[in-house]
Amino acid sequence: MAYTYIKHNKPRQDFTCVINALSGKVFICQFDSNGNKRGNEELVLAEEVLNRPHLVGLSEENLCKECVNISSEDLLELALIKSSREKALKAGEIAPLYLRKSQAEDDLEKKQKKS
Description:
five-stranded mixed beta sheet, 4 helices
């Protein structure tokens, strides 16, 4: 998202990418105007961040004033850039980054607390 935003908008200031995490929460990550991450991804309540300036979201989610449409060409360009800069990972080295529990895990935890 950050790559596409920078490519098409050439921002002059830091910005925050936002993705809907459902249940009133969003995933955010802050970037400088060159696309460098300024911290780690976070899961936060939507109401805490959606009034901040310089938010960028996905067009289909319609969460922010600034929106991007990520194309397959943008993804391919970014993959080629990253592959030229970084050592390739082996399949066994790839792992998902979970920022929150699944809905089923949350529901089970709530049920166990009530018991």
